[in-house]
Amino acid sequence: xxxxxRYLGQTMRLMVGMPDYERYVAHVQRVHPGQTPxxxxxxxxxxxxxxxxxxGKVGCC
Length: 61
Known about the structure:
Elements: H1 2-15, H2 21-31, H3 40-52
């Protein structure tokens, strides 16, 4: 169940809009080695803002 369980978990998180922090950290370390990844809290807030508009906006406008 190892690999299948990971894929299922990742799919479920993406379906409900939960970002994959571990994947983000791995990407930053691989592609941007001199950059410090955001903390989990910063990352979560960033993804929520990107999904829902953030910065106090409600709706699309």
